Amino acid sequence: MECPKCRGRMRTFDRNGVHIEQCDNCRGIFLDYGELETLSRMESQWAQQHYAPPPPAHGGPAWGGGHHGGHHGHRRNSWVGMLFSS
Amino acid sequence: MIEELARLARRDGPVTVLKKGRVLVVRAGDVVVKAHPPGTDERALRARLEAVRDLPGIMLPPLGLERLDGRLVTIWPAGEALTMADVDAGTTPWEEGGRLLALLHARPAPAGLPPAGGPARLARAMADLAAAGVPDDVAAPILAAYATLPPARDGGALTHGDWHLGQIVRYDGAWLLIDPDDLGGGDPAWDLARPAAWYAAGLLGPDDWERFLTSYLAAGGTAVSRDDPWRELDAPARALTVQLTATAVATAAKSGNSPDDAAQALLSACGRIVAVAKAGT
Question: Which of B165, B198, B228 is facing A59, going by the closest CB pair?
């Protein structure tokens, strides 16, 4: 297949079930029908899993750490004692 | 000592030791008896108990003060303490904690009351760390974070001085603050600084932290500014991070263990405090 933009040679890749043609010359990408939508859907799923939640209403310190979905794993160690004692 | 304390309670019923360390706390029937550390300043303790009697609906008032083997002993009605089950069920009364601290901070410190005990607790934690024989490379980030701290701000607000989830009980259907041992005039932001330090270390989830802080502000809490609470919180939260890390690391070392996940999270926070301070100079 020939690149519709620069007439270079198109090379075919398969990535996660998406069929992609890329031009060896100008690096332009050609997607089959519906595959842009597939990529967008996959990107939003990835974003939901990986992007940080919105910042809390009252901010935090410059030296604050990350929060990754609660800390139940800490619950049975010294964190428990720390909650209740000096 | 335990039996004698239980006798001071003058109550029938099972005797339980609630705390054994610098202080000894025993429950007998519906009363809690607390032996204060040897050498406790009696005038300071009396002033603190007097201040608590003037805080109905905010702090649990004492039943009496006695003396046993040279130690001061206070007697209290037994409230219903929080348990791990409350934390696991997500029913921790963060809102009540925030509200009660806001009410406390609205009061001026009565004349004759000693300063709040928060800064002295930090100094004790650093002394414990030095005495615990912690390896230098483990202690280094704690000492470096300690070196970033400004002197504690003076403040005339009534400050609890040692607030955590063990310092709130339900008594007669209402939540109240307990333990005036560190009550005094001080920077009230120190009372928010322990949860703030847990939050900054990633131990306390953002939802719980926001519940606490939002309720504090909604109840008129004055320790921090509404538009940017961390302006006032930053330094006290760094101080409590250092204190909690020093205590966790010293406790682990004394029992022959290496720092666990929670202590590691605090050590990382100390590292970030130092990195931010370096970047700012």
Answer: B228
